[in-house]
Amino acid sequence: MKESKLVKGVVAAIAILTFSLPAIASDVEFKGRSEKVSYSDLNVKKEAGAYALYLRLQQASKRVCGVESIRNAGGIRAVSRQQRCYRDTLDAAVVKINNPVLSRMHEG
Hints:
The protein has 5 helices and no strands. By secondary structure, it is mainly α. Helix content is 72%, strand content 0%.
């Protein structure tokens, strides 16, 4: 039981780094932004738990990358950078978590 919580804590810490690294690589505007995504309350071995985690990762990726509408972002280029950051960040988070159920959801 304790080992499981430790593993989830380590994965959560990796997810934090995962969110910040692609954002830094995508554009300077996103440098240093990160968000902790907790999922110790979820059973990610089950589809329902993995789906809930995936939704959390999507929302966190949007917040970290500042995904907005063209009107609010200031133009198509800004939206393009945000979308690229979002995709890269979400991809990296799913890879780092390394959960087969989550990966299948992400791949579609």
